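Kindly inspect both lines:
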Amino acid sequence: MSALLDKPAARWWALAVLALTQLVVVLDTTIVAIALPDAQAALGMSDDQRQWLVTAYALTFGSLLLLGGRVADYWGRKRTFMVGMVGFGLASAWGGLAQGGTELIAARAVQGVFAALLAPAALAMVTVTFPHGKDRNKAFAIMGIVAGTGAAIGLLLGGVLTEFATWRWCLLVNVVFVVIGMVGGALLLTESKAEGDNRYDVWGTVTVILGLGSLVYGFTRAEHGWGSADTIGFLAGGVVMLAVFVWIQCRVAQPLLPLRVVAHRVRAGAFLVQAVIGSVMLGSMLYLTLYFQIVMGLTPLLAGVANVAMTVVIMGCTPVSTTMLDRFGPRPLLIAGPLFCAAGLFFFAMAITPAGSYVTQVLPGLVLLGIGFSGLFVPLQNLALTGVEPHDAGVASATVSSTFHIGGSIGIAVFTVLYAHTVADSLGSGAGQLAAFTDGYSTAFLAAGVGMLAAAAIAAFLIRGTKDELMPPRAAEHATVLVGAH
């Protein structure tokens, strides 16, 4: 076997294993979304519990991603990869066999914990396996394509499994991927880790997890009133914990998140825009999926297929966006992209009705969203590394991924509160159930559209500079590196 590993072709087989890992981690963000109505009915879950099936995974994944990168670099990337694989597989099996809503939510949270080990370990091994040159660019292009299409694959696969098997297979299918990944990882991956005196920022990790968790939970409690004691208490507690986290990062020798990474104006703008994108993609798209199944009455399979239209537009427009990025730089794309997304979301808010017509009330909005998102993904990764020193490249890119999932967690919580209040008001005024649900979805889309307008404003005010200033050669070369040696 060692002779095989010495061959150049073995690197590409190793990349196939790592790309599979990337696919599993990304699609698990969306594969469960299609199964939510069936899982909710089967386990007798409330609407509040239903949204936590997505939030629990995104929150633990996003909160622990930076720590996962540190563990991979310090403990060993292959070792972390294998442990992450085993844990992710066991958590998926637990979720697939869960007999209650609380148990399923707990399994989803554990999935997120091990995904936070898997993702950075896999991407760090790509940086080690392909250290430079055209092969490196090609490898990360493949990883980027997998990441970009994983969400759509999750929706489609979730629809197929829910339709022809059961919602439980949306989780159990991960066991198959895990077995393939473990065998391939054991045979093809080599160990590597950062050298030197490496220490974990334990208190920084604890405070950021408590802060983010308290903040997200506080938003979910807002359903009972923004002025209620528990809502204010958890939101205030989250802010205090995050302030303590920042204080710790200023004083420890090896911080979990060096503040120089987020203090840069352009990078700060990129992180904020990414957080809004996460809230829109995970939050509002969840409600579009529910609209397809609950109001329009589409089967899970057709609901998955209906969502693919946006991904097709993204893939078709990305080459154009890449050409524009090379010619004009990232700033125009990061202003125009959110505006297109906002237009699509406002279209949903105004167009959808209880009768439901996919071609006239949904498809135009998906096209606008696809155009908008195609102009956002590539430039955001470039800006993540603007002015970053090489040893901070990994943590800077990991922060982009973290802000996406944390933004998604907060977005889902906020949209759920707005949805619940609107549905209650509509039912109280005499509206039918489907009409009330549609009103709730429209409110969520409206709020998401306002968020995208805010993202465009953030880009306009914070992301400034010439193309060469915003995309220096070193940043452009490593733009797709999501996690590396810190």
Observations:
- The two ends are 31 Å apart (CA to CA).
- The chain has a mean pLDDT of 82.
- DSSP finds 20 helices and no strands in the chain.
